[in-house]
Every structure is written in C-alpha cells, then in structure tokens.
Amino acid sequence: MPGGVEAMIPDAVRGELTAALGRAIQFDVSTAKLTSLRVGGIADALATPADRAALARLLRLCAKHRLPRRVIGRGFNTIVRDEGVDGVLIQLAQLKMLEERPAKLLRVEAGVSHATLARFCRERGLAGLEFGVGIPGTLGGWIAMNAGIGTRELQDVVRELEVMSPAGRILRSFPRDALRFRYRALVGFAEGSVVISALLAVEISDRKRVEDESERLLAKRRATQPVDQPSCGSVFKNPRGHFAGQLIEAAGLKGETRGGAMISPLHANFIVNTGGASASDVLALIGHARALVRLKTGIALEPEVKIWGRGAPEERAS
Ligand SMILES: Cc1cc2nc3c(=O)[nH]c(=O)nc-3n(C[C@H](O)[C@H](O)[C@H](O)COP(=O)(O)OP(=O)(O)OC[C@H]3O[C@@H](n4cnc5c(N)ncnc54)[C@H](O)[C@@H]3O)c2cc1C
What we know:
The structure is a single chain. Strand 17 (257-258) and strand 18 form a beta hairpin. The longest helix is centred in the C-terminal third of the chain and has 19 residues, at 279-297. The chain is α+β, with helices and mostly antiparallel strands. The chain is 27% helix and 25% strand. Helix 1 runs antiparallel to helix 2. It has three domains: 2-90, Uridine Diphospho-n-acetylenolpyruvylglucosamine Reductase, domain 2, CATH 3.30.43.10; 98-224, Uridine Diphospho-n-acetylenolpyruvylglucosamine Reductase, domain 3, CATH 3.30.465.10; 244-308, UDP-N-acetylenolpyruvoylglucosamine reductase, C-terminal domain (Uridine Diphospho-n-acetylenolpyruvylglucosamine Reductase, domain 1, Alpha-Beta Complex). It has helices at 11-21, 52-64, 114-124, 139-145, 207-224, 244-250, 279-297, and strands spanning 25-30, 42-47, 69-71, 78-80, 85-90, 98-101, 105-109, 126-127, 148-149, 152-153, 158-164, 171-175, 180-182, 185-187, 194-201, 203-204, 257-258, 261-263, 271-273, 306-308. The chain is globular. Bound molecules: flavin-adenine dinucleotide.
C-alpha cells in the first residue's frame, strides 16, 4: 500500500465489489486527483456506479461488509488527509440527467456539474441559479452543503429532493417543507443518505440577462478570490456577526505558508496550493489560523471544508 498504510478492504470483498460493479470500481486511488486542493492520500476504492440500481447494489454491499463509504462530488469542498481514507468513495458522475419540467422546474441529478447547469440555464434563458456560477461542484455537493453566496442559497430554489437511504434500500422524494437546510448544511437525514436528484425552481428570463448577471458575479469573484489557484473555497464558516476572512486577516495571517500551502493574500479565508503542498501543510495552516484567531478574539472558527481520513485533527499555533 502506498504510504505504508494498510487497506481495509480484504481481497475477497474487493472481488465481490468488482463482480458487482465491473470497471466502475477502482482500488487504491489518489484523492489528490479527486479534490480541488490537489492534496491527499490514497482511498481504498473509488466507485462510479452507472445508474441508481448499481448505486443501490454498491450501498448494500458496503452495508453487508460494514465498509465505510462517502459520496464525493468534485471535491471542491473536501480535503483528504495524507494518510488516505478508509473504504469506498462514491462518485455519482454517471447520474447526470438534467431536464426542464413543466411549471418552471428543472430535474437535476446529483452528478450534474455547476458548469453544465449554468450553461443549460444560460442557453435557455432560465434565471434564478446564476448565484451558483462561481460555486464549483456538483448538484449533490451543492445540496449537501446548502451552497450559496451572501444573498442566496440552494435552499431558496430546491422544491423537492430525491434521497437514497444509507444501505440503498429506499429511494424517497421529500417536498421542500420536509427539508431542514442550515448554514452550509442539510440536516435531518440518516447519516450516509445519498442525494440522488432535486427539482429546482427557475424563472423564465432571456439569455442576455442571465449571461450579464452570471458575468457580474464571476467578475466580482475574480477580483476578490484566488480563483486561478487550487483551493477548496472558504475554509471556515463565517461565525455569527463576523467574516472568517476578516478575522484571519486581522490576525496577520495573509500570505502565511506551511510547505506548499499558503493563506491567500487575496482572501484570507482561502488556502491555496502554490505547488507541491501536502494535506498536512494545509491542515497545519488550518490549525494555526484557528488557534491564533481564538487566542486573539476568543472566537472558535469552524471549518466549512470537510476533512476526511485517517489520523487525528491538529490545532496548534506554531
Ligand atoms: C474557488 C471556490 C469558490 C467557492 N465558492 C463557494 C461559495 O461561494 N459558496 C459556497 O457555498 N461554496 C463555495 N465553494 C465550495 C464548493 O464549491 C461547494 O461546497 C460545493 O457545493 C462543493 O460541491 P462538490 O460536488 O465538489 O462537493 P464535495 O466537496 O465533493 O462534497 C462536499 C460534501 O457534500 C457531500 N456530498 C456530495 N455529493 C453528495 C450526494 N450526492 N449525496 C450526499 N452527500 C453528498 C460530500 O459527502 C461532502 O460531505 C467554493 C469552492 C471553490 C474551490
């Protein structure tokens, strides 16, 4: 095993997974290729089920063998530790249906990327989702994170959600009223539930207006965020009444580095990979920023980014 870490999926179970999924499962996969910061160790397995039935089969197998498994979108909000991650990562890239429905609705499957969705809306002059043009990822990641900008979040446009139960046995639709969105979270489902698709509300507009609004939002982002460098977006959630970036900047941490990781001089809530960063470099910066902000202000910053993998959290001002 790379890095000397032992894989947790026994050969017999690997055989069973391969028999069930064929080429849609790979073993010992680098997570640096699956996450936008381009850091991280090895995942025991990566599955890209061809359809819902294959996904259900996979979830049942994971439950049967008690394999840990997580859904990963495009990894724009995820860091995997250098020690790697146990079990199966599931990418729903093959669930990519996107279609217009009556009554100004879109049915969007979890694997549809933000870029595809933005293009679809632009070409048809459909408004309402422009706020997502600069939020990279998949519909599944958007929903799980209740992704958004200051004025608008996914919860504003979701009308219904289709969710598969953790062990792949039940597929149910939930109307908007039954969903509990929070700041950068969707709660209330059993741990390990999988978002399969959503109905999103749009407005009939025209192509030019949708393009202009999208371009306005992108230009604002380009001026304030390091969009051309590998990052995972905002590292910390904004504490009530504060902006995490301002707190980190006030602690004097803009431009702070650990190895190849740097707190962006453009936006202090972004950590960028300047080349050759490891997950440990990034986590050391996260721990340092948390500790220093806490020391100076008493405020405990909470990561927005999901941190997965083997090993213990670090928090130390160094
Ligand atoms: C430059 C940049 C700018 C960003 N700007 C913003 C912003 O303005 N606002 C904002 O909110 N975010 C922002 N982000 C963060 C990121 O774009 C969002 O969090 C996005 O929703 C991540 O989508 P993803 O598919 O890559 O999710 P991933 O990082 O792959 O996963 C994120 C979480 O969602 C879960 N998940 C993914 N798919 C499913 C599914 N089908 N079912 C259940 N759980 C699932 C994962 O298990 C994980 O817990 C930014 C990131 C970058 C790099």
